[in-house]
Automatic annotation (TrEMBL):
Pfam families: Peptidase_S8, S8_pro-domain. PROSITE patterns: SUBTILASE, SUBTILASE_ASP, SUBTILASE_HIS. It comes from Amphimedon queenslandica (Sponge). This is Peptidase S8/S53 domain-containing protein. The keyword Protease applies. Keywords: Disulfide bond, Hydrolase, Protease, Serine protease, Signal. Residues 39-117, 397-446 form the Peptidase S8 pro-domain domain.
Length: 514
């Protein structure tokens, strides 16, 4: 295996002069027999002239200062190298020279130099045991894809050599599931911190045909030297599977995944986000935003969770930017872009100011970022190239903040025809209320005034008793405006100037405010 340039510079610093002289007797490691040289390191006070005088007086040549030391000099003699055993037995001139140098008043430290048989330190080639290792240019680039960018990689091996292999770190992969019984993953899998939010069971195994989350987990923790696949960039780390994608996704399920086992999980890895179309704006709802904030402040028992989000795959679309992705934009998350093997941003990489780092990927649009699945078909409206917020598809779930404990939450849920499914994620006072009514679209609710609006109003009426308030969960960006309206913040007294292509002020919905 050819190591990276940095690795070579790091490890090939000491050259050896002689062959290996280590002796191994009956399987026991022995200290090597020292081979002395004709060089001495001598500490001399008084400057270069004093050093020259002392060297000449004792038959040495002063070769100059050693490195950056002010008072240590390299003295060299013409006598041949003696074996240390010979010196001890015969008391030859070599021992005498050291004693003579030490007798000088201006001399301090004196040491005759011996040869060091240091070895090069490197990770042994793993091509023989991990068949895909030699193809992993992102971790170990030896010119597999582009010889002009040799060594363009994550430079992981020097970190491994220093002991940074992920040991003691637990990564939660929030995705479409993790095939945790895979040979390359099972020894690093932590079931106690894993969960399936699609089916409300502990097993996060993906449905048939879904492999994205498993691939993401593998890139992190694939076992090393086990004759399977490749090597994870942090192969000694642990992984938890948090299955979120592939089912109905609401603010409740997202926030639950982003806060699950938050005192145990160090890093939440998220390679998903809103659709990469250039016309969709999406991001965390009230609960998900709160989960990110509390995770940063309270996760890992106060040390804070690290959350990463992929910046997106929409770079090939004219209008797409990760600025439209509220997850990637969150101040509590690290946005990760993509660089390709040519040393430039990948063709699908999205541009925005939120990106804080990049990872190396193939220069083709892959499934780096999955889109949020929705309950119904694509219902986004696109009018004359303008991005529209999609028509919300409501579920039979409510997120309700209730103060007074689980009993108060149960009472309120029962009073209004709900079942309290329990707390949402790690939140102390937010509960998941579920009703049996069928899902209604926004337009149907507005036109008919169906029970969904009624239930919302009924729950909000509990605010009068300071027992809770509601934030109805939907699939897209929720500004959580209703609680503000209830408190009287409706914009009265505020004048907004819209600088744009004009305003149709005679419109029925605008004329009274114009």
């Amino acid at each position: 295996m050819t190591s990276s340039l940095f690795l070579l510079a790091l490890t090939l610093t000491l050259s050896i002069v002689a062959a290996d002289i280590s002796a191994y007797i009956e399987g026991q490691a022995q200290l090597p027999v020292a081979v002395l040289t004709d060089s001495w390191a001598v500490e001399v006070h008084g400057g270069i002239e004093a050093a020259n005088e002392i060297a000449e007086r004792h038959g040495f040549t002063n070769m100059g200062r050693v490195g950056a030391f002010a008072n240590i000099y390299h003295f060299k003699m013409s006598s041949s190298i003696h074996n240390i055993n010979e010196n001890i037995k015969s008391g030859t001139e070599v021992q005498y020279m050291t004693t003579a140098l030490k007798s000088e008043i201006k001399v301090g430290y004196v040491q005759q130099q011996s040869l060091h048989n240091w070895e090069k330190k490197y990770i042994q080639p793993t091509c023989q045991t991990d068949p895909l290792w030699c193809s992993q240019w992102t971790v170990n680039n030896t010119g597999q894809t582009n010889e002009t960018n040799l060594y363009l990689d994550l430079n992981a091996e020097p970190a491994w050599i220093q002991g940074y292999t992920g040991n003691g770190i637990l990564v939660g992969v929030v995705d479409d599931g993790v095939q945790h019984n895979h040979t390359d993953l099972r020894n690093n899998y932590v079931s106690a911190s894993s969960y399936n939010f699609n089916e409300n069971i502990s097993d996060p195994s993906p449905p048939s045909g879904s492999s994205h989350g498993t691939a993401c987990a593998g890139e992190i923790v694939m076992a090393r030297d086990n004759n399977v696949c490749g090597v994870g960039v942090a192969y000694n780390a642990s992984v938890a599977g948090l299955r979120l994608l592939g089912g109905d996704i609401t603010d409740i399920t997202v926030s639950s995944a982003l806060s699950y086992s938050r005192d145990n999980i160090d890093i939440y890895s998220n390679s998903w986000g809103p659709p990469d179309s250039g016309f969709t704006i999406g991001g965390p709802g009230y609960l998900s935003s709160l989960a990110l904030k509390e995770g940063a402040e309270m996760g890992r028992n106060g040390r804070g969770n690290i959350v990463t989000f992929a910046a997106g795959n929409g770079g090939g679309f004219e209008f797409d930017t990760c600025a439209a992705d509220g997850y990637s934009q969150s101040i509590y998350a690290i946005s990760v872009g993509a660089y390709a093997q040519n040393g430039a941003p990948a063709s699908y990489d999205e541009k925005c100011s939120a990106k804080q780092t990049v990872a190396l990927r193939e220069n083709t649009r892959t499934t780096l970022t999955l889109t949020l699945s929705i309950v119904a078909a694509d219902i986004g409206a696109y009018i004359e190239g303008q991005a529209q917020l999609p028509v919300a598809v409501f579920t039979d779930s409510w997120a309700v903040e209730v103060h007074g404990g689980i009993e108060a939450a149960n009472e309120i849920a029962e009073r209004h025809g709900f079942t309290n499914m329990g707390r949402v994620g790690a939140f102390a006072n937010i509960y998941h209320f579920k009703m049996s009514s069928f899902i209604h679209s926004t337009n149907e609710n507005v036109e008919s005034g169906t029970e969904v609006q009624y239930m919302r109003t009924a729950l909000q009426s509990e605010i009068k008793n300071n027992t809770g308030q509601t934030n109805e969960t939907n699939l897209y960006l929720d500004l959580n405006a209703e609680p503000a309206w209830i408190q009287g913040y409706t914009g009265i007294g505020i004048l907004v100037g819209v600088v744009d292509d004009g305003v149709q002020h005679t419109h029925t919905d605008l004329r009274n405010n114009y």
